Amino acid sequence: MTKYSKQTRLLVAVDCIIFGFDGESLKLLLIQRGFEPEKNKWSLMGGFVEPNETPEEAAARVLKQLTGLENVYMEQMEVFGEPNRDPIERTISIAYYALIDIRKYKDQLSKEYRAEWMPLKEIPKLIFDHNSMVEHAKKKLRYKAALHPILFELLPEKFTIPQILTLYEGVYDIVLDKRNFNRKLLSTGLLVRQKDKDKENSKKGAFYYKLNKETYKDKISSFLNFIPNP
């Protein structure tokens, strides 16, 4: 097989920024790196792209190895290619972010990688340029969530409006006007109110809602404008 002459070979990796929501706070899934360099340091979950797979397939494989999950909302974010980002070999990383409902899948995490959910506001120093990846992912998520209802991917099948408010405030790190947010949210037609209430978090109780999946499919490409000046 003919090869390009006089060209240096590069490694291509994928790294997954996995966001999760447990009903109270937005979190990030991290692992403790099991080999040198930076052994036992906190890291994003990643791996090298195999010769017979696309970057998307590699990211899906990495996600399944860590969480046991398939068909999770995942989107390619950015390419990180500083020449010295990996001290061992020249490695270009394609970063993806994924959205997971923690409570639904917390028991499926692989023990092999010593994975742990950490509050987004409390993440430690990560290896290489992984902190920079997380910051880029946060900006991407904020921008995308202002245009599309993707944050519903983080919610359980039944949820309350206060939970949605908490989620949006966590993503944008702001305090939203409750009445204005509720009004805009209910006007989208995305929610179907249920008969039962969540009475654990308030005496009065908050009605549960489910996502109107047909409306969601229509609105996924529509501007929602939940957040002022995203």
From TrEMBL:
Residues 9-141 form the Nudix hydrolase domain. It holds the Pfam family NUDIX. InterPro entries: NUDIX_hydrolase-like_dom_sf (IPR015797), NUDIX_hydrolase_dom (IPR000086), WH-like_DNA-bd_sf (IPR036388), WH_DNA-bd_sf (IPR036390), WHD_NrtR (IPR054105). Coiled coil: none annotated. PANTHER family: ADP-RIBOSE PYROPHOSPHATASE, SLR1690 PROTEIN. This is NUDIX domain-containing protein.
